[in-house]
């Protein structure tokens, strides 16, 4: 039997539910799922910036996949600044979005804001880049690449590049690092060094290494300085295509031939990188796939449905040498 108190609670609950359904209809957010009434999922996405061709392709992929899935996407560009990402995430918490996804510009310094999201019961999905945290419960999963392995692959493909070029003698490497403190910068350096130390301790040496912020302008500027201080560099390992493309300009300005006088290995595989490779200016590219949107939306839905997910959902990628560039170019999607 319903007591008066229980009855009131039930009545208020029913009214609230009806109200919610009405709201959902009013703002046009009700989904067209068979049951109807459930509101569209809102995803708050905080992007790193627009520093590279990879990033542009990644942002486009997220936007179009959200549209395709019928989600409401709130998107913000942090211009490579952590404080902008933190305030974007705080905004999404205040707006009570259903899920927050973000690609953290650097690995450290996220615990406080992630705890705020947890307290507000908003699940967080990392995409592309990882964070360092002592509390694993602060995010559900990471959808992205294995950057350490990309670094190893870069070293392995450099062996082939040196071989093909018939290179003899010491290998003097210049490294253009990504954004300082960012997962792909840390891990691409680590994986490369791992192979170098294990297999080439005698003949390979990184003679200069500095960040070029993952941008073309940064790559050009830093490479010009490298060439001044170390004119005998014969290999460039750039953590992304854009820095490699900027460096090519600096190499040419210094009167040297990129891809010949200086052998070049980059990471990403954006169209402009492939064009430079087909022109003989880049020797090899380690692919890092930015088209994470569809996979991310799938994960977001699973998070909402309470499905159990792996801690890291890895992206599948390939490597490309110069002689594959022309054939591969027409089918590159980014
Ligand atoms: O390689 C670079 C971009 O985090 C994997 O960020 C991404 C990297 C990518 O700026 O081009």
Structure description:
The chain is of the alpha/beta class. The protein folds into two domains: 12-144 and 291-314, Rossmann fold (3-Layer(aba) Sandwich); 147-288, Response regulator (Rossmann fold, 3-Layer(aba) Sandwich), CATH 3.40.50.2300. Helices cover 45% and strands 18% of the residues. It contains eleven helices and twelve strands. It has a six-stranded parallel β-sheet with strand order 2-1-3-4-5-11, with helices on both faces. It has a six-stranded mixed β-sheet with strand order 7-6-8-9-10-12, with helices on both faces. Helix 2 links the parallel strand 1 (42-47) and strand 2. Helix 5 (147-164) packs across helix 6 (183-199), helix 7 (216-229) packs across helix 8 (241-253) and helix 9 (271-278) crosses helix 11. The radius of gyration is 24 Å and the shape is elongated. Mean pLDDT is 90; it is low at 1-37. Bound molecules: beta-D-fucofuranose. Beta-D-fucofuranose binds next to helix 2 and strand 9.
Quick structural gist:
This protein is α/β, with parallel strands linked by helices and 334 residues long. It has eleven helices and twelve strands. It has a six-stranded parallel beta sheet, sandwiched between helices. Strands 7-6-8-9-10-12 form a six-stranded mixed beta sheet, with helices on both faces.
């Amino acid at each position: 039997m319903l007591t008066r108190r229980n009855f009131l609670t039930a009545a208020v609950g029913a009214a609230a539910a009806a109200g919610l359904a009405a709201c959902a209809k009013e703002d046009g957010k009700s989904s067209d799922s068979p049951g109807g009434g459930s509101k569209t999922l809102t995803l708050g996405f905080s992007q790193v910036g627009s520093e590279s061709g990879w990033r542009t392709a990644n942002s486009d992929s997220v936007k179009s996949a959200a549209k395709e899935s019928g989600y409401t996407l709130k998107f913000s560009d942090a211009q490579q600044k952590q404080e902008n990402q933190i305030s974007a995430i705080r905004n999404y918490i205040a707006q009570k979005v259903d899920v927050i996804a973000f690609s953290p510009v650097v690995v450290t310094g996220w615990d406080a804001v992630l705890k705020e999201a947890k307290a507000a019961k908003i699940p967080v999905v990392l995409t592309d880049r990882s964070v360092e945290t002592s509390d694993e419960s602060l995010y559900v999963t990471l959808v992205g690449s294995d950057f350490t392995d990309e670094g190893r692959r870069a070293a392995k493909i450099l062996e082939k590049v040196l071989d093909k070029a018939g290179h003899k003698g010491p290998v003097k490497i210049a490294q253009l690092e990504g954004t300082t403190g960012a997962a792909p910068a840390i891990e691409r350096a680590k994986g490369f060094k791992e192979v170098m130390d294990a297999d080439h301790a005698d003949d390979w040496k990184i003679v200069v290494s500095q960040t070029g912020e993952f941008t073309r302008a940064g790559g050009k500027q830093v490479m010009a300085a490298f060439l001044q201080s170390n004119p005998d560099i014969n290999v460039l390992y750039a953590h992304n295509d854009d820095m490699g493309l900027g460096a090519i300009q600096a190499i040419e300005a210094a009167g040297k031939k990129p891809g010949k006088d200086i052998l070049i290995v980059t990471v990403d595989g954006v169209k402009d990188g492939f064009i430079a490779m087909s022109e003989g200016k880049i020797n090899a590219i380690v692919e890092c796939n930015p088209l994470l949107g569809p996979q991310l939306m799938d994960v977001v839905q699973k998070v909402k449905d309470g499905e159990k997910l792996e801690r890291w959902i890895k992206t599948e990628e390939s490597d490309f040498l110069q002689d594959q560039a022309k054939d591969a170019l027409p089918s590159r999607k980014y």
